[in-house]
Amino acid sequence: MQTEVFSELFPLLAAANPETLDWLLSVATEHEYPTGRAVLMEDAWGNAVYFVVSGWVKVRRHSGTGEDVSTLAILGRGDFFGEMAILDESPRSTDVIALSNVRLLSISAQRFIQTLFKDPQLHHRMLQLMVRRLRQTNIRFQLRHQPPAIKLVNTLSLLGENYGDKVGAGAEIFNIPARDLADVTDITVEETAKILEKLSDKGWLKVNAERQVISLMNLQQLNQLGGKR
């Protein structure tokens, strides 16, 4: 991967200087995982930061001592994960599972921490992106009393804006399983299925099971439907 492509693909690295990018590329390791494969496991010690080159993953947490698991987040191309465990030097608190075939780049914890100390711009950019994640979590909290349809529309528009392949006024995202969409939206699977069907009937989205994509027809209208401006 060329340095320019590396920088353009990952917003975290957009502010890094060229020397930093060249060095990170030289020490990065490429991984490929099939659908359903565990990338990281809860309680394992953090030893690397991972960057999503292509595909989709879900971040999940086990509930209590039982077998129930809940999806906390869905990440796509251009995002990263694994940074929290190396920053606070503690075991990982979540699993990361491949939702689709996924390609990743990993950078060891030691080398990534060294890079943050050497490149203040990269350090600052990482803080900005972590704050953005916190803001998105706050938005989900603020939406907790909204109708299920509003909550799901906000989830879909966020996925489209962050990770979707732009198509005209809309975007295409992975056909995420209803259970995972329900978890991250904090609604039931039944509500998710009904709302997706209604949105499809109204022409707001189209589900292509063969291509495994959900086409969000107009992101601006979807944002308005979800109460955003």
UniProtKB/TrEMBL annotation:
Name of the featured protein: Cyclic nucleotide-binding domain-containing protein
Superkingdom of origin organism: Bacteria
Gene Ontology cellular component annotations, sorted alphabetically: cytosol
Gene3D superfamilies: Jelly Rolls, Winged helix-like DNA-binding domain superfamily/Winged helix DNA-binding domain
SMART domains assigned: cNMP (SM00100)
Listed Pfam families: cNMP_binding
Source organism of this protein record: Myxacorys almedinensis A
Residue ranges occupied by any Cyclic nucleotide-binding domain in the UniProt entry: 12-133
One annotated GO molecular function: DNA-binding transcription factor activity
